[in-house]
Amino acid sequence: MSTEILTLFKIIVSAAFVDNIILARYIGLCPYIGMSSSVANSIGMGMAVTFVMVLASIVTWVLWNFIFVPLGLEYLRIMVFILVIATLVQLVEILLKKNVPNLYRAMGIYLPLITTNCAILAVTFLGVDYGYTLLQVVVYSISVALGFTVALVLLAGIRERLRLARVPQFWQGYPIVFVATCLLAIAFLGFKGLVK
Amino acid sequence: MNILIPTVLVGALGLAFGLMLSFLAKKFAVPVNPLVQEVERVLPGANCGACGFPGCSGLAEKIASGEAPVNACPVGGPKVWAELSRLLGQEGSSWEVKRAAVLCQGGKGVAQVVAEYSGVASCKAANLLPGSFKGCRFGCLGLGDCVRVCPFSAIHIDLESGLPVVDWEKCTGCGKCVAECPRKILALVPRKEQVTVACVSPDSAREVRKACARGCIKCQVCVRTCPEGAITFENGKIVISREKCTLCGLCIEKCPTHCIIRVGKTAALLEVRG
Amino acid sequence: MKNILRVALALTVVCVVAACALSVVHVVTKEKIAEEAKKELKEALGVVFPKAETFTPLDLAAFGTLPESKDIQFLEAYEAQSGGERQGLVFKVASTGYGGPIVLLVGVDTKEGKITGLKVLEHQETPGLGSNVAEAGFLSQFLGKSLESPFRVGEDVQAVSGATISSRAVARACAKVAEIVRGEGR
Amino acid sequence: MMREFWHYFRNGLLGENPVLKLMIGLCSVLAVSVRVENCLGMGAAVIFVLTCSSLVISLIRNFVPNEVRIPIFIVVISTFTTIVDLVMKAYLPPLSKAMGIFIPLIVVNCIIMARAEAFASRKPPLLAVADALGMGVGYTLVITAIGVVRELFGYGEILSHPVFPRAYQGMMAMILPPGAFLLIGISIALLNWSLKKVKP
């Protein structure tokens, strides 16, 4: 039992910090740059990503292990997984709009952005690649989403501060954001070697 | 066989997902006001956010429901507003066109400077320092946050006075500068000639006198002078009623600190120095 | 209702066509992919055991209880043969380095009791530092080493500068393989 | 028609370069651009997927019901991505290994989905192909330029051929994530600067 918990803990730390999906793996950069202009936005996006990521990895894990691996259809993985994600996103959008309009208003505008968020697809792939159990996949996807949100909120905080700063003309806008990301990535390099 | 199984399987998945999506889309359909879509079509679609709503679709929703005025989109300008008011059946109703005005005259040589400031050249940053570098806690810092935020380059800092000047020809009344100013010195006013108090300080006469030569000292001479009774003193502030004011200019003459000014008189430029 | 069916059918048709196309491509490329994988393995095995001509996979269970720990894992074993005669063994081992497991092949000449070669197949070490353990410069010092050597970084193995942990992982893999082969010999 | 074709092609190349101007498709740019070889492979893969899926989507655009628009587009895109994945595995195994998970991730490369939504689903096939080619080539140019700088300074090599003397110690910063972020920031700043220089 205790080793199981230890494994889960390891998954959390490595997924959220050591192998941070944005800063160490360069996955999910588009929403990272696009949605980090304010802390409030970034939290909304983080919530939406977490929600879809967990759902998607559960569904794809089940499909994968009970249908596609037994039938030897591994090569259909890309198509099926992305189809599941696209459908899921749309379903979530429809259901939220009707049943929980408040939540829809809070994260609805981010949902369409999620279909093409490579982080989600990457997590479903990595989840089955690593051969995790269902519980581990759930924990893994939550921690990746946590790492994503942390990176997003950190950058949003920096960008809010950056507005006070005088930035050289040609560095205004995206260039300075990438420099900030570079410094964040250096900081996250410090986590490397934490999990053995 | 190699081709049949995957084809059937993925086909079945596609069918299931397709049924699910279209069924749920119908079952849980939220009636969308067709007006919203029409409004959105009229709006510029730049999603710039100058209106303060989440994108053009967000604004379209608010305009259609009447929560936002038809002229809420500053970028679209009168053409879009007219189109929208026609759409909403509000034709002929007059919306107020607004412009930004600077309500402070405490520029160089007018307001007291208590310290030399050499920090980050931004009003927001300077305002974080207790008391800042000016004697008046409410006056313009002149570091130009409004200039930088203006999407239409309608504001510049006047070199002589060190205060921002709004060009009413370029200004669209989007209100970004009003939101940006940490001291709330900028305000949106109707685009027409008017008389207004160019000082937002609520301080007492002695404090104001010490800090600035053009501050309102609440002497209420203007209240007594106005032949129309358009000027009142409410909650420690001078209020000039635009309806009653006849723009006679008596108050401007009588004001001992010259803090009442005429706005929008010549070429729509705000005369900051009265 | 009609509309629902129409929508669902549209998606189904696209899915069916897509799946059809994919399975055709899959059938065409399947053999080639398997062949490439086999060729790659053969090449890698050839590098760690140049003398042998054929390699046959062995069951790991044949080696009794393997030293299973969180730092090291035995994945596969092959028998290296030349002229139908057993020359040595090749092990595929995963040894934990700095960024994750370093998967490498270790070739052992069982007749002379020597390491015949090493090859790193996969690793996630820091590029520019730890990644150097996959280079010939580091790996060549293991060549021809006796199985009785201690395989300890700092004693008989020179670590890659700035990558002690990665170097240790490789040395550890060799030490464990040597241990097993010695145990088998007795 | 030909005139329009070139117009849209050039648009993707310069005016609306997907990476530097529109800020989409960044993930693969940063992840793959360690070696020029990988960049060229990735560029070719993206051009293929983008062009083929734009063509198909443009052809079927009138039959696609709105409710399942996105699933259908994404199935089309993923089909071509899987084809690239399988073909690369079969005929270029080392390249496929070097790019790892980023080949499957082409499917969610925002460039492709964005172009499908914004362009291919509204325009006739020829123009859709023009746009796709322009965007694809624009993407490849940027990624290769970044790849050249990273490989040159990171390893002292170009296409795995040594350029600098052997004593050259690679700059680790260029290979690691921070360097990639810094480099793309510098490229955008340079682009801003050059655009200002050309037309003040």
Automatic annotation (TrEMBL), chain C:
Locate the FMN-binding domain: which residues? 97-181
**SMART domains given for it?**
FMN_bind
Oligomeric state and interaction partners are given as:
The complex is composed of six subunits: RnfA, RnfB, RnfC, RnfD, RnfE and RnfG.
Q: What is the lineage of its organism?
A: Bacteria, Pseudomonadati, Atribacterota, Atribacteria, Atribacterales
* Cofactor(s) required, per the database record: FMN
Q: What is its EC number?
A: 7.-.-.-
Annotated GO molecular function terms are: electron transfer activity; FMN binding
Which species does the entry assign this protein to?
Candidatus Caldatribacterium californiense
Q: Which residues form a coiled coil?
A: none
Q: What does this protein do?
A: Part of a membrane-bound complex that couples electron transfer with translocation of ions across the membrane.
Q: Top enzyme class of this protein?
A: translocase
Q: Which sequence positions carry the modification called FMN phosphoryl threonine?
A: T164
Biological process (GO), any one:
electron transport chain
Location of the protein in the cell: Cell membrane
What topology in the membrane does the UniProt record assign? Single-pass membrane protein
Q: Which UniProt keywords apply?
A: Cell membrane, Electron transport, Flavoprotein, FMN, Membrane, Phosphoprotein, Signal, Translocase, Transmembrane, Transmembrane helix, Transport
- InterPro entries, sorted: FMN-bd (IPR007329), Ion_transpt_RnfG/RsxG (IPR010209)
NCBIfam families, A to Z: rnfG
This protein's name:
Ion-translocating oxidoreductase complex subunit G
Secretion signal, residue range per the UniProt entry: 1-18
What GO cellular component is one of the record's annotations? plasma membrane
Task: Tell me its family.
Answer: Belongs to the RnfG family.
